[in-house]
Design a protein that fits this description.
Layout: H1 7-20, H2 28-51, H3 59-76, H4 82-98, H5 107-110, H6 112-129, H7 134-137, H8 139-151, H9 156-174, H10 182-208, H11 234-243, E1 248-253, E2 260-266, E3 268-269, E4 274-275, E5 280-282, E6 297-306, E7 314-315, E8 321-325, E9 330-332, E10 338-339, E11 349-356, E12 376-377, H12 382-392, H13 399-412, E13 414-415, H14 427-437, E14 439-440, H15 442-455, E15 460-467, E16 478-481, E17 485-493, E18 497-500, H16 517-526, H17 555-587, H18 592-609, H19 620-631, H20 635-650, H21 657-674, H22 679-687
Parallel strand pairs: 3-12, 13-14
Antiparallel strand pairs: 1-6, 1-16, 2-15, 3-4, 5-9, 6-11, 7-10, 8-11, 9-10, 15-17, 17-18
Helix pairs in contact: 1-2, 1-6, 1-8, 1-9, 2-3, 2-6, 3-6, 6-8, 9-10, 12-15, 13-15, 18-20, 18-21, 19-20, 20-21
């Protein structure tokens, strides 16, 4: 029995929803037009084949050709060339995996999505029109939807909309034998609503909690953009930059009040070198805000033009980067630092960033972030630990303690003369700076401060970049030169994120903008008393308060139980129909005589699904007499099947393929009669589990 034409709408709708499942990877507005163009083109070909004398064998090639042409037109409408689109078909899936999300909506990236939708639509329609089980026609689109979620899992309202949309598409396919009248619409609702509710409930559950305590699996966990092996750490370049103070590093045009520009963030130290745990991947459309910031933020922008003096694969940016246009850099999602291996001679780019907006006293008496790991070190020199004990006198980690330590550096040490800049940031250089010379550049100040703060249990990292220059050129752009090269420590403040400090004192041009982090830090610094009453010490790495003994947390086991129940229900809803479909396919294969017997076994199990009492000792004719009054199966069809079974089993003659086809034609007639039953009866039949085994004698 061939499904009604509108069943194809369900298959096409499922393919459309599956394509839009990538809306967590690309913006939905960028996906909609090419995906919709492909689906409409394939649907037009299907309608043409159904309503005209066009041979059915041309449905797939015509649909694929017209769908590909429609997708190509949609993708190249904005200016990209067909060559760029073809390149996206080959490598777009891989480059999308490497990018932050949402990825840039370039045809070179998203072209593979319309291709997947095209394959799902063409294959699904072809299977549907050939009479294969309706659920099988949905498998290609289901595979695309699963792949989309492996790229990035949809959560919240997006997950609910996808689940509801796919549920309606499934209902349309499963009710293909009914019209779109009142009964048909009611059927769609009765079938689609449970699917949508189960899927959307699961999506909502796993969007807010993971019973296993681990992040959702993603294909994006793969190797990232490497830092060039020839790149020199900006920290090691500080001395060389100060030796060439007049070289222009970059120019800036901005109305925002900024005091520094970051190149890299260093959070590891081995006694000689400072390292970064940054993992760079191509920057997409927008980078989410820092999860450690729980206060209001403002968005600012600047146009930056790198000059030959920059001489580094890192681009100047602000904490924290939101987006970049004009170039396509890689970004470290944790810090927002930017990497562009060919940054020398790079064009002007626009960087947008988010910065907390704070009241003047927001940083007074605040705590450090307990969730941020401390600086990764192999060991701390004894001299560093001694300094921490002497300065903070056993006080616990807090932002006032960080400010007190900053003030101590300002009072105790001084900047080295510009014509004799100090260099070095390893143990030997830092201990010499602390104990003997007591003079240094921002390199020694920042590195020594970071290690002393680490010894005191304060979460601190070392940043390297440039101070904002007050010099401007004829075009009104700020000119940042090598003399502005600068290193500074940053402290993780609870709810605010990373706050930059300046232990050099006087070397920083602090932002005077009201509400800026620098302004709030200056206010907290001014209100720090000379004899600071610091917080009592807490053991570094002390365990956080947890559930009281004897009162284990219930959320994890509860969610695990719910997840297990959901998995069982999902396995039942999907596994039983798929198992029956596979069994049907196996019964249609083999020798013609076996295929005829398989037709009887399939008919027997279909009748059992619908509640007909068929036991193992019944003949075909006996089953027909039981089925006629119970489910309305035509007796003549079962009589015809009985004659074919008798001939295959008892005549002694060879059974030909035509006889096997006639036997399965009787099965199709039985299916047609059963398909006219009420929807609840058909749903129960499709999900009946006990008929997967043979009947009792």
């Amino acid at each position: 029995m061939t499904p009604r034409p509108y069943a194809g709408v369900g298959v096409l709708g499922a393919a459309l929803v599956a394509g839009l499942g990538f809306s967590t990877v690309f913006a939905a507005t960028a996906l909609l037009i090419p995906v919709l163009a492909v689906v409409l083109a394939v649907g037009l070909v299907d309608l043409l084949v159904l309503r005209t004398p066009v041979p059915a064998g041309l449905r797939a090639p015509l649909g694929a050709s017209l769908g590909a042409a429609a997708g190509l037109v949609a993708l190249t409408a904005g200016g990209p060339t067909p060559t760029q689109v073809l390149d996206g078909l080959r490598t777009g899936w891989l480059r999308t995996l490497e990018s932050t999300l949402p990825a840039r909506p370039d045809p070179e990236l998203l072209a593979f999505v319309p291709l997947l939708v095209l394959l799902a639509a063409v294959i699904g329609l072809e299977w549907l029109r050939r009479g294969i089980a309706p659920l099988a026609a949905l498998l290609p689109s289901a595979a695309v939807l699963v792949l989309a979620q492996l790229y990035a899992t949809a959560t919240g309202p997006a997950a609910v909309l996808l689940a509801c949309g796919y549920g309606v598409a499934v209902a349309l396919v499963l009710t293909a034998d009914r019209g779109l009248g009142r009964t048909g619409l009611r059927t769609v609702v009765l079938l689609g609503l449970p699917v949508a509710l189960v899927a959307s409930s699961a999506a909502a559950l796993f969007a807010v909690a993971d019973p296993l305590g681990s992040p959702a699996y993603s294909l994006r966990e793969r190797p990232l953009t490497p830092v060039p092996e020839t790149a020199v750490s900006p920290l090691a370049q500080l001395g060389g930059r100060l030796a060439r103070p007049d070289d222009i590093a970059f120019t800036v045009t901005t109305e925002a009040s900024v005091d520094r520009w970051t190149l890299v963030v260093l959070d590891g130290y081995d006694g000689v070198n400072w390292t970064s745990s940054a993992r760079y991947r191509p920057l997409g459309v927008d980078l989410p805000g820092d999860p450690g910031v729980r206060t209001a933020t403002g968005t600012f922008a600047a146009d930056v033009t790198p000059d030959t003096g920059l001489d580094a694969p890192w681009l100047p940016t602000q904490n924290r980067t939101a987006s970049v246009t004009g170039v396509a850099p890689a970004v470290d999602e944790a810090t927002g630092t930017l990497l562009l291996p060919d940054s020398v001679g790079a064009p002007t780019y626009t960087v947008r960033w988010r910065s907390p907006e704070l009241a003047g006293d927001a940083l007074v008496d605040t705590a450090v972030d307990p969730d941020v790991p401390l600086l990764a070190v192999d060991r701390l020199p004894a001299g560093i630990v001694t300094v921490a004990d002497e300065v903070l006198r056993g006080a616990g980690p807090s932002f006032p303690a960080a400010l007190a330590l900053e003030q101590w550096f300002r009072d105790t040490y001084s900047l080295a003369p510009a014509d004799r800049p100090s260099t070095g940031h390893g143990d030997a250089a830092l201990l010499y700076f602390l104990d003997e010379s007591r003079q240094g550049t921002s390199e020694q100040f920042a590195a020594a401060y970071t290690l002393v703060a680490r010894a005191a249990g304060i979460p601190t990292r070392l940043a390297v970049g440039f101070r904002q220059s007050g010099e401007s050129d004829a075009a009104g752009r700020f000119v940042v030169r090598n003399r502005d090269a600068f290193a500074w420590p940053e402290v993780a403040v609870d709810g605010v994120g990373w706050v930059a400090l300046d232990p050099t004192g006087g070397a920083q041009q602090e932002s005077e903008a009201p509400g800026s982090v620098s302004r709030a830090a200056a206010e907290a610094r001014d209100r720090l008393p000379e004899s600071t009453a610091l917080a009592p010490p807490q053991p570094v790495g002390a365990p956080q308060p947890g559930p009281a003994p004897g009162a284990p947390g219930l959320l994890g086991p509860l969610l695990a139980t719910v997840a297990g129940l959901f998995a069982v229900v999902l396995a039942w809803l999907v596994g039983v129909p798929v198992a029956k479909w596979v069994r049907r396919i196996r019964r249609r294969r083999g020798r013609p005589a076996d295929v005829v017997v398989g037709a009887w076994l399939e008919t027997r199990d279909r009748l059992r699904d619908h509640g007909v009492a068929v036991h193992g000792g019944m003949t075909v004719r006996e089953a027909g007499r039981a089925a006629a009054p119970a489910v309305g199966v035509p007796p003549d069809e079962l009589e015809r099947l009985a004659r074919r079974v008798d001939a295959a089993l008892w005549s002694g003659a060879d059974t030909d393929r035509a006889a096997a086809d006639e036997a399965w034609a009787s099965v199709a007639a039985v299916d047609g009669a059963l398909a006219r039953r009420r929807v609840p009866e058909r749903v129960r039949a499709a999900l009946r589990l006990r008929t997967l085994t043979g009947p009792r004698l």
